[in-house]
Design a protein that fits this description.
The protein has 462 residues and is mostly helical. It is built from 15 helices and no strands.
């Protein structure tokens, strides 16, 4: 039987069955104008829309699942931050206080970051943006369990950790891609997928754009270059500070000279040369004290500001790029970086704080000098008081000697007064010319004889 014959037979059978069913149906017939849905109709099954194709090993999630995962990660992160066991781990501090470690300066931190992601690299991720968030959280939590830092540095340390993780992944994979070698911690399947991704037109276009950007000459002063090699600029700055024996980092101009000059002192970067020379000349004019007209513009705040802060301030004004970064200082601009601000604004804020601290130190030095001067004055005053007491004793002794001579001239012999209840030494008072008072004073002594009339007349004449 053909396909049409089968269809006509099925239709006739269905029609006869419907007629017999209608004859045997005892239910009341429905009105013609009442259209109710057929109760035998099944609800259609919803089909999920086909999403974009994902590479093997990538992890996808819905919005609800992603929100729950984020809450769990946040709770886990807070629990790790408050774990008491972290206090015994190596400490991180941007100024390396008390032997603390920091990114870019201590190689052990860089090595731990690289070892962490290499041991957990489980996907075909040709660039950082393809790494799943869950995998990044796992690496971050591993880092949190092995280092300790203060709460105020949490955002800064996360920024540096993410930046170093991204750089190490990109540098290591890009190097092997140029050499045509597969990394041992990436499977053959994943490496083949990554090579295919890099061979696509969008990926090749981005690569050519990045190459042109690295070799560009936007200022007409040649390609930007330095002679620091693979060394981190934070490490170079720290070594310069240790060599100088100072507790302050060197100014930006010294760092640029260190990283962009040859052994003979000539610059290899024309833009860096013009920046350094201009900044140093301006600061030299600001701090000149030779009586030239330029020194008239010098304010009290400028005179009290250290030279390295003035150099950094002027360098920030002239070294800002179109993207808001500071040219020539590399990773140094991210040491005390606030992720909620731009790089230039964060550096300016830190310089303002350094200036205030420097002003407080100057005021403290002035106060200490004044205190030392006051101490010297008090010592001199004490010496003067001691000398005055000595002179007073000498004058009192002379006065006693003069009084003794007068009494002897008058024929009056004096003896030491009786000291019954008074432990203090006896000091004679000035004699009054009144004879009555003189007689009363002499009567109080036990060894003085009363004066005769002739002696009293002689005393009155005297």
């Amino acid at each position: 039987m053909s396909f049409h014959g089968q269809a006509s037979g099925q239709d006739s059978g269905q029609a006869s069955g419907a007629a017999s069913g209608a004859a045997s149906d005892r239910r009341r017939s429905r009105p013609a104008d009442l259209n109710l849905p057929d109760m035998q109709q099944r609800r259609p099954v919803r089909s999920s829309p086909a999403g974009p194709s994902m590479p093997p090993g990538a992890i996808g999630s819905t919005s609800a699942a992603s929100s729950a995962a984020n809450n769990y990660v946040r709770r886990t992160e807070e629990a790790l931050l408050r774990a008491t066991s972290r206090e015994s781990q190596p400490h991180l501090h941007p100024r390396k206080l008390n032997g603390a470690l920091w990114f870019g300066i201590d190689p052990c931190v860089h090595k731990f970051i690289r070892t962490t992601w290499q041991g957990n690299f489980m996907g075909p991720w040709p660039s950082w943006k393809h790494v799943p968030t869950q995998r990044i959280d796992t690496w971050w939590q591993t880092f949190m369990q092995n280092y300790y830092w203060e709460d105020r540095f949490h955002k800064l340390i996360y920024f540096h950790w993410k930046l170093h993780t991204q750089h190490t992944i990109c540098q290591r994979i890009s190097k092997k891609k140029r050499e045509g070698k597969k990394l041992k911690y990436i499977s053959d399947e994943y490496w083949t997928f990554m090579l295919e991704n890099w061979a696509t037109k969008p990926a090749r276009k981005r690569s050519r754009s990045a190459t042109r950007s690295r070799t560009s000459d936007p200022d007409g002063k040649g390609m930007h270059k330095h002679c620091a090699g693979p060394q981190n600029f934070l490490k170079i700055e720290y070594d310069m500070m240790i060599e100088s024996g100072s507790d302050q980092p060197p100014p930006f101009t010294d760092l640029v000279r260190k990283t962009r000059t040859r052994k003979d002192g000539t610059f290899i970067d024309e833009r860096a040369k013009s920046l350094v020379i201009d900044v140093e000349e301006v600061v030299k004019l600001m701090t000149s004290e030779d009586g030239s007209p330029n020194s008239v513009n010098e304010t009290d705040s400028t005179a009290a500001t250290p030279t390295h802060i003035l150099l950094n301030q002027e360098y920030l004004k002239r070294g800002k790029t179109k993207k808001g970064r500071i040219y020539g200082i590399g990773s140094v601009q991210y040491r005390d970086y606030n992720p909620s601000e731009t790089v230039s604004a964060s550096l300016q804020h830190n310089l303002d704080m350094d200036m205030r601290i420097s002003g407080l130190e100057k005021n403290s030095e002035t106060v200490n000098a004044n205190v030392e001067t006051l101490k010297a004055d008090m010592t001199t005053l004490k010496d003067d008081v001691v000398a005055l007491k000595s002179e007073f004793k000498d004058e009192m002794a002379a006065t006693r000697a003069s009084l003794q001579v007068i009494l002897q001239a008058l024929g009056v012999t004096s003896a030491a007064p009786q000291q019954v209840n008074n432990p203090q030494p006896y000091v004679p008072t000035a004699m009054s010319p009144n004879p009555t008072v003189l007689n009363a004073t002499m009567l109080n002594t036990t060894s003085t004889q009363p004066m005769t009339q002739a002696q009293q007349d002689d005393f009155e004449e005297w």
